[in-house]
Amino acid sequence: MAERGVGRRSEHLSAVPDPQAPVDVGELLRVVARGDERAFGQLYDIVSPRVYGLIRRVVRDPAQAEEVAQEVLVEVWRTAARFDAGRGSATSWIFTIAHRRAVDRVRSEQAATERNARIGAASVDTPYDVVADEVSGRLERQQVRRCLEGLTTLQRQAVTLAYYQGHSYPQVAELLDAPLPTIKTRMRDGLIRLRDCIATGATA
Amino acid sequence: MTTEIHTLLGPYVLDAVDDLERAAFDRHLRECAECRAEVDELREATARLGGATWSVPPPRLRENVLAEIGRTRQLPPVAEKPPTAFRWRRLTAAAAVVVAVAGAGAVAYEVQDQRVRTERATAEAARAGEARVRAILTAPDLTVREEALTTGGRLTVASSGMYGAGVVMLAADGSAPDGKVYQLWTLRPNTAPASAGVLEPGQAATVQLVEGLAGVTGVAVTVEPPKGSTAPTTTPIGDVTL
After folding, report:
1. Residues 21-60 of chain B whose Cβ lies under 8 A from any Cβ of chain A
2. Which member of A35, A167, A198 has the closest CB to residue B16?
3. Cβ–Cβ of A191/B42 closer than 8 Å?
4. Contact assignment for A89 to B44 by CB distance below 8 Å
5. N or C end of chain A, less CB within 10 A?
6. Nearest to A95 by CA among A61, A133, A140, A136
7. What DSSP assignment string belongs to B12-41?
8. Residue B140: is its pLDDT beyond 70?
9. In a 3-state reduction of DSSP, which class is residue B10?
């Protein structure tokens, strides 16, 4: 290992990722932080389908999703040196930026159109089903689905309405006809249970 | 409804809070290492939710992004943390402090949502207001109360008994009808309501810093003619009891 690594470090990092050996996004990000555009290209290839997928899920409109995705990915480049590995994974850091931007876009759209925040009760059931559809296939997605199924209905709805639909917690409370404190608690409980479930799956 | 800032942890991680709540919670996080650790952990869980949505972007996105990074300067690592300036910058990202509105014995700074992008900020008011907002939102006894507006939307009051001041946020679903405006009032027992700020026609959201909250038992919002009234002329569409 050590011998192979000598003098080959940068080459290794810019090599086409081997699907069998997952590339460490955090390591890539550290290289990107030094201004390596090739490493960024690699990072792009690894994370962009998930970044774009998440943004599209929240924003819905493909053209707008593309705009937001571009902002997010450029932001990742711009602020790569600010990533703090001590506070979590690189993937989590990137998704946090992506989700926040997507939600900001949804909110500013809502403000701009002064759209009535009331959404038909029917949409309450959709997110999970839509998620379930999209999560079929891949191992990771299966695991997420399994973990989502492990939540109580209210926890699952609270988490998915906020995360995938970009609703604020008062909007979620209204949609689910539940008191604000309950919704806040369910969001936190749900995330804790999700975290525990995912951690268990990772070691299995 | 009384809300401890800490209960916003779940909504915060899910980005289900508004700009004011986010700013307040960011402040809370700086003083609560335990909360920071929990936020970081739960973000790993949401990242997995994010990773579960997978959609191939159009090929031009790659070209556009790579072209743009070619002309985008990267930020240096965070070397120092200028405590106050940095914190405030995070808040101004959400809100810009504008015009000072003077009530009877009370001074209110109107803070407007960045998205409204009002340009009339004055440096003096901003300097005075920002330190104050910062202080209030970091107050250990910060309490957030919130009520729905009968016409849709929310009235939120984040107050600190320690500072005797509060930050009032109005987020109506739409602007007031027929060219009318929203006006905020502070309520005291056996006293006429005092104006705590008048919105512009067409304006549906505002954040105001209200001083002299001691003795105030409630905050209300009414629909008034442009420029506001000296006393409420309509039934409040929302009120928060303190």
Report:
1. 36, 40-58
2. A167
3. yes
4. yes
5. N
6. A140
7. HHTT-S-HHHHHHHHHHHHH-HHHHHHHHH
8. no
9. helix
Q: What is the pLDDT of residues B172-209, one digit of tens each?
A: 888 898 889 999 999 988 888 889 888 888 888 777 77
Whole-number Å distance between alpha carbons of B45 and B4: 24
Q: Which chain B residue lies closest to A115 (C-alpha atoms)? A: B173
**Pairing of β B238-241 and β B218-224:** antiparallel
pTM over 0.90: no
Residue whose structure tokens are 């209204």: A174
* B119 Cβ neighbours under 8 A, 6+ residues apart: none
- The type of residue at B229 is S
- Indicate yes or no: CB of A74 within 8 angstroms of CB of B41: no
Q: What is the pLDDT of residue B163?
A: 77
Instruction: State the smallest CA–CA distance between residue B74 and chain A in angstroms.
Output: 4
CA atoms within 13 A on the CB side of B181: 14
Tokens representing residue A34 in the block? 């030094």
Q: Which residue has the higher pLDDT, B80 or B216?
A: B216
ipTM summary value: 0.73
Q: Is the distance from CB of B189 to CB of B234 less than 8 angstroms?
A: no
Tell me the pLDDT of chain A averaged across its residues: 78
| Separation CA B102–CA B226 (nearest Å) | 17
Q: Answer whether A136 touches B (CB < 8 Å).
A: no
| Chain A interface disruption, residue of B55, B81, B156, most A CBs within 10 A | B55
Residue type at position B114? Q
In angstroms, the Cα distances linking A125 to A56, A121, A122, A130 are 19, 8, 6, 9
- Asked if A195 and B45 count as a contact pair (C-beta separation under 8 A), the reply is yes
Q: How far apart, in whole angstroms, are the C-alpha atoms of residue B208 and residue B157?
A: 9
Cβ A63 vs Cβ A100: under 8 Å: no
Q: Name chain B contacts of A92, Cβ cutoff 8 Å.
A: 40, 43-44, 46-47
The C-alpha atoms of residue B172 and residue B154 are separated, in whole angstroms, by 6
Residue B37 scores a pLDDT above 90: yes
